[in-house]
């Protein structure tokens, strides 16, 4: 799209994708609902910028992400030292090399490799969530409006409708795979029974 505003056009232009896009950051719970979203950000902004408000909130209020909870992300997601243990992601090659250079023991390397394989397998959950949203809401298959406020409202509405659909219908690959693991884990509180209401989403 072309907004007629050169500054806005430049901000939303993503050189890697060679087009004008809005970036979004979504956090899914094990029951398949969206519990946090950063919506309608300029397409040229990176993941670190999108994650900054949530990172600040976690640092200021540890109860936002108390143990043993953590966020699962992909290897491209920014992981700063203050987020150590709070963000789990597959290891990059440079991180794997660093373990060896720093003289990590065989047990530490094996543990890191196991964590890497588990995170690599679990990262597909994000793709499941995105595919479900794109498959259910055909509005996302056509360009969104230029009007910034209207575009945000559409994206926000889609997130709320997604949560309502997951709770009411119960069809979610994330929910199918991870909800039983959540219920079986003795370290965390059991999920509350669904009342067919949308989950609160923080934007």
Task: List the quaternary state of the chains.
Answer: single chain
Question: Which strands sit side by side, in order, in the main sheet?
Answer: 1-2
Mean pLDDT, nearest integer? 79
Which blocks of ≥5 consecutive residues have pLDDT under 50? 193-200
Structural class determined from secondary elements: alpha+beta
| Helix content, binned percent | 40-55%
* Amount of beta strand: 5-15%
Largest sheet: 2 strands, antiparallel
What Rg, in angstroms, do the CA atoms define?
Answer: 19 Å
Distance between the termini: 24 Å
List descriptors:
two-stranded antiparallel sheet; single chain; 203 residues; 46% helix; 7 helices
Tell me about this structure:
The chain is of the alpha+beta class and 203 residues long. Helix content is 46%, strand content 12%. The protein has seven helices and six strands, in the order αββββαββααααα. The strands form three sheets. Strands 1-2 form a two-stranded antiparallel sheet. The protein has a two-stranded antiparallel sheet with strand order 3-4. Strands 5-6 form a two-stranded parallel sheet. The longest helix is centred in the last third of the chain and has 22 residues, at 148-169. Residues 193-200 have low confidence and may be disordered.
